[in-house]
Amino acid sequence: MKKILAVFAVFGGVLMSADIEDTTLKAIFENFEKSSKNDTIQAGLSPRQIELSNLAVIIASGSLRLWQERAEKSELKADEIMELLRQSTAYLGMARIREFIFVTSEIYKRKGIKITDFALDSDENRLKNGQNLQIELFGSATTQSMSGDYAQIGRYLSQNCFWGLLH
């Protein structure tokens, strides 16, 4: 639970990237940022986990400008950032992620960085590997509960979310 709170608290660090002229609002953000850094340190999050969390929050918030600023400077590998975008697509939808993918692809093109294409695996392999990972992480009850009305969602998550965590 502490890690979940710390990930949420990291959002304060993301907000401070913007230029805020209102001094009262800026003070509120700065105070939140100070406390979020302490929460993050106490939770034991690594710099990589913090950066992934910050980028995930930016994607969920829809701030394309802030994404571009952070993605340009990020020390994460290009494949890690693209995997974050792939994972986000399953949870936030293609419409939300589309522009983030275009902007990120342009950044990497400009920098001459090639992205690994993991889409070569078959649907069947992605499903099998995703289900196996879900069982490993959460036990067999997870995949058993994805039947009946939930079968389509379970299949989608296994093929498109959990499968990606293997790379």
Textual characterization of the structure:
With 167 residues, this protein is mainly α. It has helices at residues 2-9, 11-15, 23-43, 47-61, 64-73, 78-92, 94-111, 123-138, 140-144, 151-162.
Q: What is the H/E order? A: HHHHHHHHHH
Which oligomeric form is depicted?
Answer: single chain
Number of helices: 10
Instruction: Give the strand tally.
Output: 0
Q: Low-confidence parts lasting 5 or more residues at pLDDT below 50? A: 1-10
How much of the sequence lies in strands comes to under 5%
Largest sheet: none
Through-space gap between termini? 26 Å
Helix content: over 70%
SS-derived structural category: mainly alpha
Q: What gross morphology would you assign? A: globular
Radius of gyration: 18 Å
Q: Whole-number average pLDDT?
A: 77
